[in-house]
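pinging the channel bc i need a second pair of eyes. not urgent but kinda urgent?? the chain im working w is below, pasted from the shared doc
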Amino acid sequence: MKRTQAKILREYGPFPGVDNVHGVTFDGDKVWMAVGEKLVSLDPATGVTARALDVAASAGTAFDGKHLYQIADGRIQKLDPKSGRVLATIPAPGGGGDSGMAWAEGSLWVGQYPQRKIHQVDPETGRVLRTIDSDRFVTGVTWVDGQLWHGTWENDASELRRLEPATGDVLESVEMPAGMGVSGLESDGADRFFCGGGNSGKVRAVRRPG
């Protein structure tokens, strides 16, 4: 397994009224942060928080190119990003133990924090299509260029880990600096990861290896 130290490109926040960042996603322009009772959009170029959607947002967030998906209280809600209106709801696979979430290959990929699993989920029905086991708590999930990455946070240590999707084997680990937890993970599709910073109330941009 390849190990490297994370290169922090930028820190955003803390933000007024934001005590915790529970999940993050990227819509190609703005980063969306799940902060408990709302989803807040962040301009990664300026650091300005421009909009907020009043929706329960207790864990991972994803974007499918058109809609936002948000975990809250054992369910996943499909949202209109312009209005915040809930368009559909499916059960979350972890039944309340869900953490990160990503969109890839027409599916939602949902982390189950305490069980150390990532589930591929049918976005229409909530049916679990397959499950990938990890050996760390899963606190964020993202796909980029066919690579599956997830965040971890255990005993004040956090990593970004690249897994072999077929086996769950760890191929690469990017170790975050001490005290920098990861609660939500999303790629910008290029050379950056956006990482939720948990109870720091921050979001961090981290260089993607390679």
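so The chain has a mean pLDDT of 95. and The chain has no helices and 21 strands. — does that match what u expected or am i reading it wrong
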